[in-house]
Design a protein that fits this description.
Layout lengths: L1 H25 L7 H14 L9 H9 L3 H13 L5 H27 L7
Helix pairs in contact: 1-4, 1-5
């Protein structure tokens, strides 16, 4: 389980990077980006808690598939605490990492292409 835990931890780190990259791309179009820092701070604080504490299925779905909090910390933590491996979440974690990586890179390139400097 230790090797799989390390892979899932790296996977969560990549997903956090992708989420951060997507938010930084938004900063090309807004003038006050301090709100993005607060949003990232909230993401970090909420990713320290397991996703299972949210009883509403809609909230869990948003925090799993839109803001990837479940895959940043919950899935690697479950790998250490459970004796049995949840292969469904493990495979889904790698699939979501690929989706977020490709999506954030596309969003970053799109943002760079449509960026106009502050002086023009």
């Amino acid at each position: 389980h230790t090797l799989l835990y390390c892979l899932l931890l790296l996977n969560g780190l990549i997903m956090f990077y992708c989420f951060n990259l997507a938010l930084r791309a938004v900063s090309f179009w807004i003038t006050e980006s301090s709100g993005l820092w607060l949003l990232m701070e909230r993401v970090v604080v909420n990713s320290q808690m397991p996703i299972d504490i949210y009883y509403n299925r809609i909230v869990r779905g948003v925090l799993t598939f839109i803001v990837p909090l479940a895959f940043i910390a919950t899935v690697p933590a479950k790998m250490l605490t459970h004796v049995e491996i949840d292969w469904q979440f493990t495979i889904l974690s790698f699939v979501m990492m690929g989706v977020f990586f490709v999506g954030s890179r596309w969003w970053w390139k799109f943002s760079l292409k449509h960026y106009s400097s502050a002086s023009s």
